[in-house]
Amino acid sequence: MEINQPEAVVLTERQQAILKLIVQEYVATGRPVGSKTLTERYPVGVSSATIRNEMADLEQAGFLQQPHTSGGRIPTDRGYRYYVHRLMGAPELSSGDQIMIRHQFRQVEFQLDQWVEFAASVLAETAGNVSIVSVPRTLVARMRHFELISLQPRLALLILVTQETAVRQMMVHLPEDTDQAELSRLADALVTETRGLSADEIERQVDGSTDLARYVLEQITFGLRGLNSVERTQIRHSGIENILGQPEFAGEEAQSVLDLLRGGALLSAVLPQLSAGNDVQVFIGDENPADALRRFGVVMATYGINGEVTGILGVLGPTRMSYWRSISSVRYMARLMSDLMEDLYSS
Amino acid sequence: MEINQPEAVVLTERQQAILKLIVQEYVATGRPVGSKTLTERYPVGVSSATIRNEMADLEQAGFLQQPHTSGGRIPTDRGYRYYVHRLMGAPELSSGDQIMIRHQFRQVEFQLDQWVEFAASVLAETAGNVSIVSVPRTLVARMRHFELISLQPRLALLILVTQETAVRQMMVHLPEDTDQAELSRLADALVTETRGLSADEIERQVDGSTDLARYVLEQITFGLRGLNSVERTQIRHSGIENILGQPEFAGEEAQSVLDLLRGGALLSAVLPQLSAGNDVQVFIGDENPADALRRFGVVMATYGINGEVTGILGVLGPTRMSYWRSISSVRYMARLMSDLMEDLYSS
DNA sequence: TGTTAGCACTCTTCTGAAGAGAGTGCTAAC
DNA sequence: GTTAGCACTCTCTTCAGAAGAGTGCTAACA
Prior knowledge:
The structure is a homodimer.
Chain A: H1 13-29, H2 35-41, H3 48-60, E1 64-65, E2 74-75, H4 77-87, H5 95-106, H6 115-127, E3 130-134, E4 137-138, E5 143-152, E6 155-162, E7 167-173, H7 180-194, H8 199-204, H9 211-227, E8 235-238, H10 240-244, H11 253-261, H12 265-270, E9 281-284, E10 296-305, E11 309-318, H13 323-345
Antiparallel strand pairs in A: 1-2, 3-8, 3-11, 4-11, 5-6, 6-7, 9-10, 10-11
Helix pairs in contact in A: 1-3, 1-4, 2-3, 5-6, 6-13
The structure holds a DNA duplex (30 and 30 nucleotides).
């Protein structure tokens, strides 16, 4: 994965081992880890006093912190980062998990309009966190077909299908009374005329048409542009129950999670940081771009076909989360979704 | 609204007034209501001792219950029911609220594909509960247009648009290698041939065609049938934060709410009970069809055009919720959605 | 010099007791 | 029929003490 902040400080072998154990223990239990617990639960080979000394050093160096004077230590954001970048090992989903996911996906393979939702739910389950998945967006949308359906004399429904297989439905006010027959004639003519064109290209050719045609074409360019505007990016999420079960988000804090997911606040915070094509990116605690995310760990990746189709997906969890599971899941899902996009778009 | 269980027992004027106050007070505060609180906070005109006597009678009659020997009383499900059916008064959203909602709706009026999601979020906000809204389903789906897009020699994407403006995208395995040109020819021919037909009607005409055409038509009938199958009904929900804030669903209980919303468990529990065309239906506590709903109040309505298009919408809250707000909101939203459907379909 | 045992100390969490607060049912008086 | 008074019950909060876990420091040890 991308290394956001290379860690320069050198830790001894033993310090690394201790830090690793503390992170793992804390992630598993959620409670501060003491020196005694460590010696009792793991075959460390040294006494608790030695561990204590090392822990003091690690705290000095900024990798651990004490929530209160006594009662064990927990990793700092920096500690997590060191763990993720140096100690964790390569995150790769077990082949069993991979097979299971592919198998599950096969069941919805034919219902293209449910891919994103399904991806979100699978990702949430394998990562054990809240997942978010954006509907893929193409760089430029091209007209494939549209239908005009008369609703009232001056009101019509426009159904727009793009080359990129996106669909949009819009209500359109008409500048003059128009019946279905006329709308159909107009649509037939304009469909062949504009097939395969982008919004920009359609705009250039607007001139020579009638008022009504011009107006419809305007709506179509508007619709096409909307399909690949960042602001209109739709996201689906899943797995809130996973994070609500965590003790750190039990009561009041639950609200902050929901607030993040609602209204795409999360998306707009994280999106600018993501560069397409990179591997999985990890934001831990204070490393996060937005204040509201300070108490979270975020693991994100882009998926799609280089430069043409892009989406993002990722998971959101407490800083104390299993980064290994999250990273491996996100990485795998990003690949899977990219493969699907490949099948769909690159012909 | 529909009166599920007409209440035969006769209460005196004063008992009704007291029950009404207790329900309102308990809904507002969430804490059991005592006789003293009542006399202090409302101008009841009698002493707390009298209230106590009346409360004892109401408890006897099954309208109130004591969570513990001392500490006030709370309404039973039956008490709520009596309140809702007899004491509450006509639930009608204030015209201010009505205007606000219509105004908000105007902003997404042209993005038809977002109506349902938006309706859910507005309903959640006005009712102050979790809302669910189903995507409207037409009784019978008729072909309007479809596109076949070649992905691989034996794999194509089918985009299906119905007269009823529903859209479905499906992957289709082809029985023989076929290129885009051939697919387009086939689509052109079949579109004009099947335009306006239902799944059944298309099926009847399958015979005389080529293998490939027959196969595509099969897929189309499958797709059309899927669009109005109950099992595939999609629902959107919104406002989980509203219910998670409630003390009764703070910790563990939150899970049960999420479980209900996930996987449409709620829908399948409530749907059989709903009869189209009726007004708002209210299920309080043990009145609910499913066990998992026992601790909830559910207010549901159908919307749509009589017999042709139907959807459901409603809210879910703790039994202790403001039924007045919920019922008035659900009723108004159902009307609003019905109006929108009217514009869309009845021409 | 690194490691370990021991110890005094700190801080959280659990437990139980005490007291305040709210509400009830009953009785007797109005 | 209504009300005041009273003893009683139950919850909730507070507080102190004990238990548990962990720490830093010191002195001894290999």
